[in-house]
Amino acid sequence: MTIRLMALLGLLYALGFALFGVSLAKPAGAERTEAVVVLTGGSGRLERGMAVLKRGEAKRMLVSGADPSVTRADLARRLGPDTLGTLRCCVDLGSEAVDTRSNAEEARRWIVRRGYSSVRLVTSDWHMRRAAYEFRQDLPETTIIEDAVQTRPSLWLLFLEYNKYLLRRAALWLDM
Known about the structure:
Residues 34-138 form the DUF218 domain. The chain is of the alpha/beta class.
């Protein structure tokens, strides 16, 4: 009986991983939100957030998890000099977050302080499921649009992210 149970759990785990790997998040359409939150740590994320602002699909952006030494001028050097005006008027740099969970906490404080009810979440496709889960836990009353930056994650990266996602769900389910 124990072997059958372990085999069933192993099969469910493998099927879940396969589903996780083939159903990565996609870029959002042109939905308008009040704000955009960009999680640092992956290429293309800042560029996607800036494009959302430039298209008028959000009025303000939080870059969550930015290194405390990063300035708007540093971002302008990376994103192009034509972005400096937008960076000055409409971008806040959050440096309190160190992981996905604290990204959601930092964003919650920012969103509540500004009174926003809708936000576009920008992160990598492989990271979106866990990030969106954390954000929905911290911001149950906020509309969250998932806007994933498409990548080509390795099988190892997907494996690690799947396990982090499962562990985080289990921790919340167990109220830890």
